[in-house]
Each structure stands twice: as structure tokens, then as C-alpha cells.
Amino acid sequence: MFDDKLIVAGLEIGTSKVCVVVGEAAPGSPLNVLGAGTVPSRGVLKGEIVNPGAAGEDIRRAVAEAESVADAEIGSVFLAVTGAHVHSFNHHGMLQIAAPAHVIGEEDVEQVITSANAVNVPADHTVIHTVRQHFHVDNHDGVVSPVGMAGSRLELDMHVIHGRSHRLQNRIRLVRGLQMEVEAVVFSGRASALAVLTSDQCQQGALLVDLGAGVTEYALYLGGVPRHSGVLPVGGDHLTNDIALGLKVTPHRAEQLRRDHGRVGPAPIPDGGPITLPSEIGFVARTVSVGALNRILHARLMEMLQLIRQDLARAGVLGAFQGSVYLTGGVAQTAGLSALAEHVFQLPATVASSQAAGGVKDILDRPEYSTAVGLVEYGMRHMATGGRGNRLAELFRGWKRRIFSTT
User: Fold this and answer.
1) Kind and range of the H or E element at 369?
2) Which pLDDT value is given to residue 402?
């Protein structure tokens, strides 16, 4: 008897790590994570590829490790994209119902979807996602399925995520140069949300904040649909740099201090006991203050969260938001960060990791894997519904899509 499980791989080319996660699922079954390959990233800065040669070698190593751990061959991937060039907006499509009885049919729904998908973005940008929000029939808002309803006007709201074409092309070209196909590209913030958030949380209201090494992505959900997405070009590396400058230590030592002793809260942490640092090349042994370390962390993390709040306010989605804040990514493990987020947003906040049903626990329990796990979740849903890539396929003449074989 044939095994009908589908094997899908997600690739995140991040600032601190290149990560490949492999998962499997049968139709109608939840995702099971088989394994991952992770190597330090050498060719990425602030989420952008700056050294394709080094990044390509890192991808090769991460893929080889993932194939070995998961006992699977990776021929194609769902690829994460991010960077300060990624933006979002909400778009509206409308259709007058021409049927004599004004009863909405499948053809009308297809036409209004086509209308809503006809979006204008800057000439050097490409649409990454168009995500359906809600239909409206005349003055009836929040319609989920309008087929069979009577009305004279059908409207549809869409959430649009777009980015600079050449930046997106660089990632796709890099992967294809390694003899792998890109099934689809996925905004990292959307991937993380798929991994971390449940449908109930999205319905109640959820702000997902993924704090990575080079950038921080965020996505706000209201009524079960995305209402705003964005990228803040600041992450853990900036925290490390602040500590290195403020305490006059090496970046390596600053990273260790941040991970081992960093703590934040609603107010700056008061002075604590000293930390003795042994001598290293160019630096004599010395002591630093825990309080000084954490005041530096507090200032930068407070600023980052406040910038996200300001962007949500400008987008007009903050006032209606009464849900919870979910923190993920490597920096989310900073002690006390959820309390600081609660203070900034005046809402409940918690550190969250993957909601996948099963698999390698060490991957599922670590927030830094959220994006890569979400890529696999996206891939499973994408393939289960007969997805055919996305608009970035149009960036390459002769794009070929690998057909997934059941394994």
C-alpha cells in the first residue's frame, strides 16, 4: 500500500543562521517535523544577502544536514523573504452583480477576486502575497462565502504584501543556482504567524512579533485575517552592537552577555552585581555592571516595540486591536521581554513557539525556528489546496515548478 505522506522543506536565509526544516503530513493530518539543518550565516546583513558565495555555501551545508537528519532528499523549498523593502497595504475590489435575480454565483466571486488582485505597487516592486480578508454584499460586512446570496454589489478586501523585485530575485536565483527549485516565496512574518498562532488566536486578535538577528517582522490579525504586516530593520545584532559600544567589549563578548545576563522589564533594571570578564586579546580583565547591560537592552528593545506600535497606529489598526501579543524569534528569549511588551502595547504578551502537532521537540520548542517551521506549514497548506507557486514565478522566464511526488 502506498504511503501518501507529503514531504515539504522550508528554507530561511537569515542574518544569524541559515535553516532548513523538513516536515511531512498526510492529507487531512497535522504537520510532523522530521528534522532541520542549521548553520551560522555568513552572507546576510539585516535580512539581505550581501555575499551570495558565502550564503550559497551555507545553504548547501544546511540542506545536506537537513537531508541527513530527516532521511529525505530535498529537490525544492518554500523560501522565506524579508527585509526593510517589504511593505503591506489593504486593497478593495468591487463588482456589480449583473444576474437578473442579483444572486451571486461562483463566476461573480472569481471576478471580484480578480478585481481585488489588480493592485498597483511601485514599478520596482513585486507582489509577494494577496491574502483574502472578507467579502461584502451591499451593506452586509464580514461575509465569508457570498455564493447564493442576493445582492447588487459584491466587494472583497485583500491584504497585499510586496517587496523590491531585485532583492527577491537574488534569493530565488541563489537557490536555483544550487539545483533546487523554489515552490513559492513566503514573507517571513507570515510564515512565523502560521507556525505560532492558532486560528482562535487570530480570530480573537493577535500581534505576532518575530525578533530576529537582523530584522524584526510583525503581523497583526483581526477577525481571523491579516490586517497589517511590516518589517523593522533592527534585531538582535543591533542589541549586541549597542552593548559592545556601551560597555566597551568585543561583539562576541557582548553577545554572550546579552544571552547569559540580559534582562528587561517595564522599567530599566536597577544596578546589579558586577560580572567579571576574563582577559582576551586586546582587552584586559575587567568587570561590568549587570544594571548597565540591562539599561542598554531596555532602551533599544523599548524603542523597537514603540516603533512597531507607531506603525500600527499609522496604519489605523491599533485602535480596534484588543487581542494579545505573541513574541517569537531568537531575541524573544530575552528574560522579561513579555513584560516589556505588555507595558508598551498595554495588552497581554507572551513568548510563543511552534504549534505543530509533532516532530523534533528541540525544534518545535525554540522560537528561533518559528519562521522555518511556518514555511513548511505554508507549503503543506499550499500543496494540499493545489497551489501553483506565486507571482514571483513571473520574475523568471522559463520558470519550472517541481511536482511533489508522494513518499
Assistant:
1) none
2) 29
In this model, does residue 348 exceed pLDDT 90?
yes
Query: What local confidence, expressed as pLDDT, does residue 391 receive?
Result: 41
**Which range has the worst mean pLDDT, 49-58, 89-98, 350-359?**
350-359
Single out the residue of 22, 115, 1, 15 nearest to residue 377, CA to CA. 22
Q: Hunting for cell 527585509 — which residue is that?
A: 83
On whether the CB atoms of residues 160 and 127 are closer than 8 A, the answer is: yes
The Cα-based distances of 37 to 74, 98, 256 in angstroms read 12, 54, 23
**pTM of the full structure:** 0.90
What cell numbers appear for 319 in the block? 485602535
> Is the Cβ–Cβ distance between 339 and 266 less than 8 Å?
yes
Structure-derived torsion over alpha carbons of residues 342, 345, 348, 350, reported in degrees to the nearest 10: -60
- Integer Cα distance of 159 and 152 in angstroms: 24
What CA–CA distance (Å, rounded) separates 190 from 203? 16
Confidence of residue 3 (pLDDT cuts 50, 70, 90): low
What domains can you pick out in the chain, each with its CATH number?
87-163 (3.30.1490.110), 198-351 (3.30.420.40)
